[in-house]
Amino acid sequence: MPNDSKLKTTLEVAGRKLKVSNLAKIFYSATGFTKGEMLDYYIRIAPLILPHLANRPLTMKRYPNGAQGKFFYQKQCPAPHPDWIKTIPIWSSSNNRTINFCNATDLPTLVWAANLAALELHTSLSVSPKVSQPSLLVFDLDPGPPATIVDCAQVGLLLKDYFDKHRLQSFPKTSGSKGLQIYIPLNTPASYDLTKSFARILATRFQEKYPNLIVANMKKVLRTGKVFIDWSQNDEHKTTVCVYSLRARQRPTISTPVTWEEVLVAHKQKNPDLLSFEASQVLDRTDKLGDLFAPVLTLKQKLPVIQ
C-alpha cells in the first residue's frame, strides 16, 4: 500500500484503465481500514454484488473523508464520467428534469464508483427498463434503543412464519448498521401501490398483534424499545442499501445475507454479534456459502391478498 495518501495510480480493470487515488487514506479509524482496502473489497466481492446492482438505478452515498466524515447522496451520475459508464434516465417530477442514474453493470464501473468514495451503494427496488415496477418487496426492521438486532431477529422470524404459511420464500440480510431487512422476491408484474399497501397493512397488523414489540408508525418517539417495521421503503422514489455494500459505521461492516437458521440462533442466544459481519468475514463467508441472495434475482412469486 502506498505511503503517500495522495498518491495516484492506474489500475487496469477488465481492459479499462482507471486512475485511483488516496489509497492509504484511513476510511475506518477504529480498524485502520483504508480506501485501498475498500477498493480491494469491492473488487473481490464484485462477482456477487454486480448481479444485484446491474440495471438498478444506483444512488451513491459518498464519504470523501471516510466513514466518520461528512457525506452526500448522489443520484445524478457525476459528470464528467467515462463514456463507457452506462446510465438509467428517469424523469423526476419533483425536480422537473431527467436524472441519469449510474448503472453499475460491470467491474470497471464498480471500481470507478468506489474510487469516488462511494462507500455505500443504494439501489432501487426496480430493474430497468421497468422502473415503475418493483421486482421485490422489503421490510426494513429498525430497532429503537434499547432494542437491538436481536429484537429485529424475533420480528423477522414472525414475518417468516407469516410468509411460510402463504408459501412465499423470504430472505434475510443484515442492514450492516443496526437492523435487519427481509426481502420477498416477486419478479412478476406488480406495482408500488400494491407492494407499499401490502407492506403497510401487514406491518400495522403485526403492530396490533405485538404492541410491546412492534411499531408501524413512523414517529421516532414511538420506537423506544421496539422494532419499527419500515414499510415505506416500498416506494418508487426510495432506495435500500444493496446487499454486500459497505456501511459507514465505526467498523467496515457489510449488509450481509444470512440464513434463517443464523437469525434463529442469534435470537435464541440473545447475541447481536452473531448478526454483524465485517468485510473480511463476508469474503470468507461467500467463499464457503456463495451468494445466499441469488434466488432474490430470479424467484417468481405473487403477493397474497390480505384478508
UniProtKB/TrEMBL annotation:
InterPro entries the UniProt entry points to: LigD_pol_dom (IPR014145), MtLigD_Pol-like (IPR033649), NHEJ_LigD (IPR052171)
Keywords for this protein: Ligase
Domain (DNA ligase D polymerase) ranges: 34-293
Domain of life: Bacteria
Annotated Gene3D superfamilies: DNA primase, PRIM domain (3.90.920.10)
EC number(s) stated in the UniProt entry for this protein: 6.5.1.1
Alphabetized GO MF terms: DNA ligase (ATP) activity
Pfam family, one: LigD_Prim-Pol
Protein name from the UniProt record: ATP-dependent DNA ligase clustered with Ku protein, LigD
Source species of the chain: Sporomusa ovata
